[in-house]
């Protein structure tokens, strides 16, 4: 039986510690920047629609930028690309802090930051297997997910505390500083790695790489499964507010509903990392992915508050399937396509989750939530059955 991997396997590597610290800073910075910008927009317009556009514009560029600019991860030295992305984001965030900035300009700058994000994430994902060879890779990826989940809560709380003490513009300047520190960590504490590809048409190279990745059947199935599960599983989260209103839940109860799913995700990462070796992480992908959706069928019974918390928490536990998917993607991706596949995985995940939020809201205008969530859960179970990794790996 293969040995279990541990978080200390990743944290023992100095270069990873620098990349991880930079990730924590940039993740918190991104969330606080979005929060502060939404406050600026609302203060200027009083429009809830324009305020929500701040978050929508942060998601929508991911597939476009991750596709069109994906070749950059092979054509530029990775450290230079990462540092450039962080400094560009810092510059855009600082520009947003200029007093009197028109709303259209603020939204355009948010879109610009959204374009930079997938390039940065794709480049970091592509180089992570080189920083974390062998068994250290899975716990490293897990730590990034734990930070992403925790930062959603901590970043919003930090944003609220900051804006209680300083203006939104000052908060944006502080977060621009966080991106500069992140860039410095990457510049001085990581190795430079030469580009893997020669210069040429960036668009042609990017689209060619996309076609090559999706032309590999096993790899295509792994990517699709990794995108379909979270984009369907987020429906209860996207519809938490209207469901809480329908059921008469208090604001405090709504907050607990929003927190319990990421809590289940975090606990699942720990349990999967400490309780399963690599072989079993891969072999249990399908069963854990099914666990994401089976509890959500309970929405058909119009669950009360405690039952809803239990449903969401159990669904969150199924996200331990990510551990096995990470390993499987490395196994099925040809060496020359690995960096493109990792970049596409990250960009696609963000895009499809953003689209999932939009679709959930649109469908809820016509379909009761107690019917919509079970229906999407059933679709999710069908997708898991059709894209089950055992079949994908065998191709």
Q: Can you tell me about this structure?
A:
The chain has 395 residues and is an all-alpha fold. The chain folds into two domains: 1-201, Growth Hormone, Chain: A; 216-395, Up-down Bundle (Growth Hormone, Chain: A). The chain has 21 helices and no strands. It has helices at 7-11, 14-45, 48-59, 61-68, 72-75, 78-96, 103-131, 137-165, 168-189, 202-214, 217-233, 235-238, 240-247, 251-275, 278-283, 285-293, 305-317, 321-332, 338-363, 369-386, 389-394. Helix 6 runs antiparallel to helix 9 and helix 16 runs antiparallel to helix 17 (305-317). The protein starts with 6 loop residues before the first helix and ends with a helix. It comes from Amycolatopsis xylanica. It is found in: Cell membrane. It is a multi-pass membrane protein. Keywords: Cell membrane, Membrane, Transmembrane, Transmembrane helix. One of its GO terms (molecular function) is transmembrane transporter activity.
Number of helices: 21
The overall strand count is: 0
Distance between the termini: 24 Å
Q: Please state the overall shape, judged from the principal axes of the Cα atoms.
A: globular
Annotated CATH architecture of the largest domain: Up-down Bundle
**CATH level-4 homologous superfamily of the largest domain:** MFS general substrate transporter like domains
Helix content: over 70%
| Chain-averaged pLDDT | 81
Q: What portion of the residues fall into strands of 2 or more residues?
A: under 5%
Radius of gyration: 21 Å
Helices and strands, in order, run as HHHHHHHHHHHHHHHHHHHHH
CATH top level assignment of the largest domain: Mainly Alpha
Tell me the number of structural domains: 2
Low-confidence runs of at least 5 consecutive residues: 391-395
Structural class: mainly alpha
Report the major sheet. none
Q: And the CATH topology of the largest domain?
A: Growth Hormone, Chain: A
